[in-house]
Write a structure and sequence with these properties.
The complex is a heterotrimer of chains A (about 300), B (about 210) and C (about 800). Chain A has about 300 residues and is mainly alpha-helical. Helices cover about 80% and strands about 0% of the residues of chain A. Chain A is globular. Helix content of chain B is about 20%, strand content about 25%. Chain C is of the alpha/beta class. In chain C, the strands form 7 sheets. In chain C, strands 5-4-16-15-14-6 form a 6-stranded mixed sheet, covered by helices on one side. Classes of the chains: A mainly alpha (about 300), B alpha+beta (about 210), C alpha/beta (about 800). Bound molecules: ligand MGD (2 copies), iron/sulfur cluster (SF4) (5 copies) and molybdenum atom. The site of one iron/sulfur cluster (SF4) has 15 residues of chain B, from α3.
């Protein structure tokens, strides 16, 4: 494992989490606005939104670590015609800037809600395109372990799963913080928003978990079927050398996105148990985050190119 | 339009000596770890011990000397985000080191391991077909170095007309990925690509 | 970066001369320019892709190390620094007048020139011998110390106490020539001052040089039994290579491997390689590989002979008319009662054992049916070229093996004919020039090249019959002074490093060791005085006796750069010493190095007027001459008319049974287990395939010559370590039994030593045998465990029976995962 792959692990995971959070947040905001009013909807989500910014910036900075010659970095957007990496970099930049503009407008309530929502929608779409292009980067015909639909699916699972759980954690945290400071405008409404959001997040997690557990065996089976030396070496890297990490990743994922989520769902029955909800939400997020990082580690680690 | 250049490698003559590799390093002052030309050893075969203690085997080995193939369909150029990796009119694929960001994406993509990252300067480097020598009417350093005359270069169409079209033997990748401008005279031990009978036995050297 | 380290070195060295500072900053500056220019390079420029500049000059030089080849190097020089290396690029490369292309090592020579190990100024040892602790001294001090010691020791012990150790680091030159020792400037110096103790033989081929002449009839003065020229394989139908690996040992484009490839293509002859390893030669040229256990070739030959004789495939006419000793009817006079060769083979002789394929198969590891098939193929495919490298003979039973292999040529009558050969090493066409005259040695006593440690330890106990002392019945004095010029055999290349350390470590035995060296080698570390030599690219010389099959050539080497630091030409060192020994006039005859080169060329032109004169030669750079005649056939005259051209054997014929060897075997005092016999028999040996010691150390080990280095030379070149890392070859079967995987670090050890080295698990070596190439630089840790894979911490210091030569490829070891 080369050190510079760590920056890629962090960049892709965190960037995907940011996109996921943005999208989920947008969804929550959309439904909350429809059910209550814009102000109620903003209370929890604005603060969560502001948390995404630094994360994205961090992710962008980390990528520089991966470059041998960062001074030339701006040039990386000059081959949109054929390079997915170029497209990824470009979309990441647009997403970052767009997200920042949106957050700023949302924070200062600049312009109308409709315009802001439209911008939000566009930024979310760019984010999803970004995830798509991130995946395309790895669909190299020369790397069997990457050149699989599983790469695309897994990147989107990471996006939505980490995004959901991050938003969930951010919501509980904000909720508890505001309530602790008696700063909650209408506590019932907010609890309603919180619990509905979390219920949806739990459902999303369970579905994504299910999908992930179907994709992984399919992916490995498909790789094994190719039978090339590179493919077999990749499998062996995942299952033998990386076997323990791989198992740990699956367990963390199962416990985080599955077991903790279900408990979280049950803890939402009463507001008095939000402390418990909080612990469960944070743990689920932490478990899944670690699992995803491990997963991404193995993803890079399993890189064996065909040829010489 | 300039004719496309390519290499002709005669595996039946190659002793695996690596004079080509070092001549290249010397010409371009390449540090340890950066090899614009690399020599793969593909080896296989089994041993059986008979009841009387005698042994039998079907061991084989052969070498393949590979630089950049200045491919017709250069995946390295396709994936490079900066266009630092580019192809000239005459087909020579080169890195413009002044704009490369050192992302190493071309290195992931090229199935011949041709792009070689230079840690000392933080940019990608690779075989430039000794274009400076070519301009002077000299052979590339590696070609001029080969003591066994296993390595030649020239107009790829002519090379193909003379030596055939083969461009893939184990442990090389399938040629259809990048369409390398390479012609190989196979060694009598040569195995087809993807053959399970041997392996690249010196991965740390290539 | 190497240059950087070296620069620091230069700056901190207090006596840095201005000249060298300028030089080194230029080198480092050059590197810096490359790095910092990068950002500004216009689009298409690659690193280092700068064209040969206007201010760059190109000079002819050569690689003169001991690899058997001799390659031109065209050095590109800029600001006094060699910046690029090319090789012969003359002509259209048509075979016969083809380019002599340097091998991989020559191409890396800049890293040998500009190497941090380079010796910069004279030094004297300050710590205990071998500690590697030195102190810089002036040339004056160095010369005085040496001259005083030489006088003192010669006064006390006589000239026989002064020894010129084997050293082949720069053997391909005229004046700066390190081998044979008798041809060196140091020999000339000592010859002016009463002489020195000689040695005979060499580490390369001692056993075949001493053994094979008994069959073919050469004398001690001319021990070389030749074979047909490699060119002559155009006439062969079959080629059988015993332990001969030109793919690695004659690697250059002027070398044997290229010629072999070229001529084999023409003749289409089948080639069989018999070697414990699937060598690069086998990869490139062989149609069949027959793996064999080391030291057992003679057993294989016996069985091949058995099949030929029993199936009546042998050439009886040839055996009757050209040989003695094949059968009872043709024994030499007076030896009718001894076993004939056919008695020995068929089991009707003293040992009563028939040398059947089954008998040989368990010894050699080759299945009996394969042996039968081989015998038929070799006997029936004519003409057949048989050759041996020196791997089979660099063994405890090497003399026997060296004589056994040519039995195939004899039994099949292939000697003296086109396409056939003798079974010795291939010949080539060469031209030669007069060498630097070194006068004659007043001392005629000579020891074997290999047993100098005995001569240090207990010289006066060494005798002619026991230790092979020549010229006297016994040595009178021990070795007290060693000249080590361009040699690493003091500690690295000689057997059993740990034992040698003991002998050399006793400073009262050998009182002074002077090394004339270019790098801080393991042997240099065991010296008392270090004299830094200029390297060949810093001086004018002529690279001599290059041969490329049917072409001979010589190279005029121009100095490419000023001598670095305080280095000095070995000739000038000797001249300075001659002054102090009051023999200056005799030594120099008023000549400089260049004068001597002119002298040698003039002398050459006296007998060979075609030779270019000094100035023209200098202009040409390389002087090539193609064989004007037919390919050389060894012993052709003898074959055509044995009466008119008898061999220099007692019988004038090929002596399958050598009466002289038989007598030696009866009179010499041999160590238990050693034999010298009239017939070329298979002799079991210590640490051979059937030694009971295999219960403890089950693996046989060979230490063949490797492409990374020429012996230890080039062993400190980073590019070469990358190209061909030091690894121990082990068969997957043996590796698996020991839980070893490719790339694992392992210990290789036996009762004498231990070394730590990565494993190359490869099917290219026969099971039960490992291979650790010779020449890696000995690098002991605090516990004395070598960390570099130096084969000679494992080899055994036990001279072979007849030659008293080095048996490097005969040892037993065990391997374990580290
Ligand atoms: N185990 C094992 N050991 C072996 C062998 C084997 O097969 N197995 N082979 C043996 C054989 S065949 C041989 S010939 C010997 C060779 O043994 P050596 O003759 O000792 O050969 P090298 O190790 O090359 O040492 C040459 C030395 O010359 C120095 N040198 C190079 N150029 C110059 C120069 O211009 N000037 C000066 N002053 N010095 C220079 C180098 O630095 C090096 O130290 O090794 C023997 N040792
Ligand atoms: N690259 C390189 N070239 C060199 C040298 C070098 O150090 N490096 N050294 C030069 C010098 S000084 C010399 S003397 C020559 C040495 O030339 P050689 O003595 O011919 O070389 P080796 O490598 O010792 O042995 C040759 C082959 O013999 C095999 N062999 C070992 N034992 C046996 C045996 O018992 N039976 C059979 N059939 N084969 C056996 C080895 O596996 C090896 O492939 O090479 C010269 N050329
Ligand atoms: S120089 Fe020639 S023989 Fe040697 S490895 Fe390269 S291609 Fe093969
Ligand atoms: S060999 Fe690799 S680096 Fe060279 S052109 Fe083809 S794809 Fe690009
Ligand atoms: S390392 Fe340089 S040449 Fe390679 S893809 Fe990245 S920018 Fe392009
Ligand atoms: S063509 Fe030039 S740059 Fe390319 S491998 Fe050969 S020597 Fe190196
Ligand atoms: S080591 Fe030998 S073959 Fe190689 S360049 Fe030097 S002289 Fe030529
Ligand atoms: Mo040698």
């Amino acid at each position: 494992m080369q050190a510079n792959e760590w920056s890629l692990i962090i960049f892709t995971t965190v960037m995907q989490m940011a996109v996921g959070s943005f999208v989920i947040l947008g969804g929550v905001h959309f439904f909350a606005t429809r059910r209550y009013d814009a102000q109620a909807a903003d209370t929890l989500s604005d603060r969560a939104l502001l948390a995404i910014g630094p994360i994205v910036i961090l992710a962008m900075l980390v990528t520089f670590l991966h470059l041998g010659n960062p001074l030339n970095a701006p040039r990386a957007i000059s081959n949109l015609g054929s390079s997915w990496l170029s497209r990824e970099v470009t979309l990441a930049a647009i997403f970052t800037i767009g997200g920042a503009v949106f957050a700023f407008m949302q924070w200062r309530k600049i312009s109308t809600a409709t315009i802001r929502n439209t911008i939000g929608l566009v930024v979310a779409a760019i984010g999803l395109l970004l995830v798509w292009s991130m995946a395309q980067v790895y669909l190299l015909p020369t790397v069997p372990a990457w050149n699989s639909p599983a790469t695309v699916v897994t990147f989107f699972i990471t996006t939505l799963l980490l995004g959901s759980l991050a938003v969930g954690s951010a919501f509980v945290l904000t909720y508890q913080y505001l309530r602790g400071r008696n700063n909650l405008p209408s506590s019932d409404t907010q609890f309603d928003i919180l619990s509905t959001t979390l219920r949806w997040i739990v459902l999303i997690s369970l579905v994504l978990l299910g999908v992930q557990f179907v994709v992984i065996p399919l992916y490995l089976a498909n790789l094994a079927e190719q039978g090339s030396e590179a493919a077999m070496a990749s499998i062996s890297l995942i299952l033998d050398q990386g076997g323990a990490l791989f198992a740990l990743r699956l367990i963390l994922l199962f416990v985080g996105a599955g077991i903790f989520s279900i408990f979280m769902y049950r803890s939402l029955s009463s507001e008095s148990r939000t402390r418990m909800t909080g612990y469960l939400a944070y743990s689920a997020f932490a478990f899944v985050l670690i699992s995803e990082i491990l997963g991404r580690f193995l993803f890079y680690e399993s890189m064996i190119r065909i040829g010489m | 339009m300039a004719n496309k250049l390519g290499f002709y490698f005669n595996a039946t003559a190659c002793t695996g000596c690596k004079a080509c590799q070092v001549a290249c390093k010397d010409k371009s002052d390449l540090p340890v770890g950066v090899n614009w030309r690399r020599v793969a050893e593909y080896t296989g075969g089994e041993w059986v011990t008979n009841p009387d203690g005698t042994v039998e085997q079907n061991v084989f080995a052969y070498y393949t000397s590979i630089a950049c193939n200045h491919c017709t369909n250069p995946i390295c150029v396709e994936v490079c985000p900066t266009q630092a990796m580019h192809q000239r009119e005459d087909g020579i694929v080169m890195v413009d080191e002044s704009i490369c960001i050192g992302c190493r994406y071309c290195e992931w993509a090229c199935p011949y391991g041709a792009p070689q990252f230079n840690e000392e300067v933080g940019v990608m480097t690779k075989c430039n077909f000794c274009y400076d020598y070519l301009d002077e009417g000299q052979s590339p350093a590696c070609v001029a170095a080969c003591p066994s005359r296993a390595l030649f270069f020239g107009d790829i169409d002519e090379l193909r007309a003379e030596h055939g079209e083969l461009a893939e033997i184990a442990p090389l990748p399938p040629a259809d990925i990048t369409e390398p401008n390479l012609v190989i005279e196979p060694h009598h031990n040569a195995k087809p690509i993807g053959s399970p009978s041997g392996k690249l036995i010196n991965p740390e050297e290539v | 970066m190497v240059a950087k380290e070296f620069l620091n070195d230069v700056i901190t060295s207090t006596i840095m001369t201005r000249r060298s500072f300028v030089k080194w900053s230029a080198i480092f500056g050059g590197g810096a320019v490359v790095a910092s220019n990068l950002a500004e390079l216009p689009g298409q420029q690659g690193i280092g892709s700068v064209l040969a500049q206007e201010d760059e000059s190109v000079v002819w030089s050569s690689c003169v190390v001991n690899c058997g080849s001799r390659c031109p190097l065209r050095l590109h020089v800029k600001d006094g620094v060699v910046v690029r290396v090319e090789t012969d690029n003359l002509g259209d490369d048509e075979f016969g007048n083809h380019q002599i292309r340097a091998c991989v090592r020559g191409r890396s020579v800049r890293q040998r020139m500009y190497n941090p190990d380079r010796l910069k100024y004279p030094m004297k040892r300050v710590g205990p011998r071998g500690s590697g602790e030195f102190e810089q001294i002036t040339w004056e001090e160095a010369f005085d110390l040496i001259a005083d010691k030489l006088k003192e020791l010669i006064d006390t012990y006589g000239n026989e106490s002064i020894y010129l150790n084997y050293g082949t680091g720069t053997l391909g030159a005229v004046v700066a020539k390190s081998w044979p020792p008798s041809a060196t400037p140091i020999a000339r110096l000592m010859n002016c001052y009463g002489g020195y103790l000689n040695h005979y033989g060499d580490y390369s081929a001692a056993q075949i040089e001493s053994g094979l002449p008994y069959t073919f009839g050469n004398t001690w003065a001319d021990t070389w039994v030749s074979n047909n020229s490699i060119e002559d394989i155009v006439n062969s139908k079959l080629m059988v290579y015993f332990g001969n690996n030109p793919g690695e040992t004659r690697m250059s484009g002027g070398g044997m491997i290229y010629s072999l490839q070229h001529y084999k293509k023409i003749s289409g002859a089948k080639m069989i390689v018999i070697d414990p390893r699937y060598t690069d030669t086998a990869v490139t040229a062989a149609d069949e590989w027959v793996p064999i256990r080391p030291g057992t070739d003679a057993a294989l030959i016996n069985a091949l002979a058995y099949v030929m004789i029993t199936e009546d495939l042998h050439d009886k006419d040839f055996l009757d008319n050209y040989c003695v000793g094949f059968d009872k009817a043709h024994m030499p006079e007076g030896y009718e009662d001894e076993d004939s060769y056919s008695d020995y083979i068929l089991g009707t002789g003293a040992d009563g054992t028939a040398k059947t394929p089954e008998w040989a198969s368990t010894i050699t590891g080759i299945p009996a049916p394969k042996i039968v098939q081989l015998a038929r193929e070799i006997a029936l495919t004519k003409p057949c070229f048989i050759t041996q490298g020196w791997g089979p003979q660099r063994q405890a039973n090497g003399e026997q093996t060296s004589r056994a292999i040519p039995m195939l040529s004899i039994l099949t009558g292939n000697i003296g004919i086109h396409g056939g050969g003798t079974g010795a090493r291939e010949s080539t066409f060469s031209i030669s020039m007069v060498g630097f005259p070194t006068l004659s040695n007043p001392v005629s006593t000579s020891i074997s090249v290999f047993n100098w440690p005995d001569a240090i330890d207990h010289g006066p106990e060494m005798t002619a019959l026991k230790d092979g002392v020549i010229g006297k019945d016994k040595l009178d004095v021990p070795i007290k002074f060693i000249w080590n010029y361009a040699g690493n055999a003091l500690i690295n290349q000689h057997a059993d490093v740990n034992y040698t350390r003991e002998i050399l470590g006793d400073e009262s035995k050998c009182e002074m060791i002077v090394s004339v060296e270019v790098h801080m080698t393991p042997s240099a570390k065991w010296s008392d005085i270090l004299l830094p030599d200029t390297m060949n690219f810093e001086k004018m010389d002529i690279a001599v006796n290059g041969d490329a099959s049917n072409m001979g050539y010589h190279i005029f080497c121009e100095p490419a750069a000023e001598p670095m630091f305080e280095t000095m030409h070995v000739y000038d060192m000797c001249a300075e010493l001659a002054k102090r020994l009051d023999v200056e006039d005799e030594f120099t005859e008023g000549r400089t190095v260049e004068d001597w080169l002119r002298y040698c060329i003039d002398e050459t032109r006296k007998s060979n007027p075609d030779w270019p004169d000094f100035e023209s030669f200098r202009e040409m750079g390389i002087y090539k001459v193609t064989n004007p005649g037919d390919p050389y056939v060894a012993y052709k005259g003898f074959r055509e008319d044995p009466e008119a051209n008898p061999l220099l054997t007692p019988s004038g014929k090929l002596e399958i049974f050598s009466s002289r060897l038989h007598e030696i075997g009866q009179t010499w005092e041999l160590e238990e287990g050693d034999v010298i016999t009239g017939l070329p028999i298979y002799a079991e040996t210590w640490e051979g395939v059937s030694d009971p010691l295999r219960e403890t150390y089950p693996l046989q080990m060979i230490s063949a010559h490797y492409k990374q280095r020429t012996h230890s030379t080039y062993g400190n070149v980073p590019w070469m370590k990358e190209v061909a890392p030091q690894e121990v070859w082990i068969n997957p079967i043996d590796a698996e039994a020991r839980g070893i995987e490719n790339g694992d670090r392992v210990y290789v050890y036996n009762g004498r030593g231990r070394t730590h080295v990565p494993a190359r698990v490869t099917p290219r070596i026969i099971p039960g045998v490992i291979h650790l190439s010779e020449g890696a630089w000995y690098e002991p840790d605090e516990d004395g465990v070598d960390q570099a894979g130096c084969a000679n911490v494992l080899t055994r210091y036990r001279p072979s029976p007849l030659a008293k030569g080095d048996p490097m490829h005969t040892i037993l070891v065990e391997v374990e995962k580290a």
